[in-house]
Amino acid sequence: MLVTDVVPNPIDVSRWPLRMQKADYLLWVGRMDPVKGAHRAIQAARLAGRPLVLAGPVQPGQREYFHELVEPHVDGYRVLYIGEVGGTTKRELFANASALLMPIRWREPFGMVMVEALACGTPVIAFPEGAATEIVIDGQNGMLVADEPEMAHAIERLGSIAPERCRASVAGRYGVPVAAAGYERIYRQEVGISRRRYHATGDHDGFRVPAAPLGARA
Fold first, then answer.
1. Which H or E run contains 99?
2. Per-residue confidence at 111, pLDDT binned at 50, 70, 90?
3. Could you give the angle at which helices 148-155 and 38-48 cross, rounded to 10 degrees?
4. Which of 214, 137, 207, 204 has its CA nearest to residue 183?
5. To the nearest whole percent, how much of the chain has pLDDT over 70?
6. Is the pTM above the cut of 0.85?
7. What is the pLDDT of residue 179?
8. Which end of the chain is more exposed for a tag (fewer CB within 10 A), N or C?
9. pLDDT classification of 91: cutoffs 50, 70, 90
10. Average pLDDT, the chain
11. Which residues contact 28 (CB under 8 A, 6 or more apart)?
């Protein structure tokens, strides 16, 4: 199939609670890999004088990093590590956080945690790497910053970001209807290309109509 468009990962925003009043804690979610930056989130939260909740698994090959750069700072008060989370616990964690920190140092292909946080009305403060530059609209649903001191400064300005604007920023770009329309558009484009090739070359054996996605109109 000729790639003619890109469809983002969808999210059903109705399944994520919009919380207008936030708790004081900052949130970091991910696997304990240096490029994900849990240690940088700790530094930024410390500079801002705010508590930080870390959530995510310590996978094989990540234990040394966790024990050396993360665990020594976990005190259950300023820095709390709660392990991997899911379901209602994860949703409440995102909804109540004052911000999600994404101090990544790699080209994140998408970053679903950013979209999930925004669906809950929680701003995202991220380094401008990979998909963060697409998902985070600087000054509207979060902030893009260069390093930990800038991240700490951005934390102090979180009051300028409205929760409902965060939610709207993902509903309009990554909601299920948007993804469904994107898949239908791609299939229709591919059918059109195949038909034109069919008429131009007479390659009747090569013409195949791709199976339509669920819910697409014939």
1. strand 99-102
2. confident
3. 50
4. 214
5. 79
6. no
7. 62
8. C
9. very high
10. 87
11. 37, 38, 41, 52, 53, 54, 55, 56, 100, 101, 102, 103
Cα(92)–Cα(126) distance, integer angstroms: 21
**Section 95-111 average pLDDT:** 93
Asked whether residue 161 carries a pLDDT value surpassing 70, the answer given is yes
What is the token pair recorded at 106?
């790699």
Please tell me whether residue 55 adopts helix, strand or coil conformation: strand
Q: Do 94 and 100 touch, CB atoms closer than 8 A?
A: yes
For residue 110, what pLDDT is reported? 84
Q: How far apart are CA 180 and CA 215, in angstroms?
A: 8
Residue 25 has pLDDT above 90, yes or no: yes
Contacts of 55 (CB under 8 A, 6+ apart): 27, 28, 29, 81, 82, 83, 84, 85, 90, 93
Query: Burial code of 65-103, b = ≥16 C-beta within 10 A, e = fewer?
Result: bbeeebeebbeeeebebeeebeeeebbebbbbbbbbbbb
Task: Report the alpha-carbon distance of residue 126 to residue 147 in Å, rounded.
Answer: 9
Q: Which value, in Å, is the radius of gyration of the alpha carbons in the chain?
A: 21
- Give me the phi and psi of 152, to 5 degrees please: -60, -40
Res 217: pLDDT? 42
- Give bridge partners of residue 145 from the DSSP assignment: none
Instruction: Give the pLDDT mean for 67-83.
Output: 97
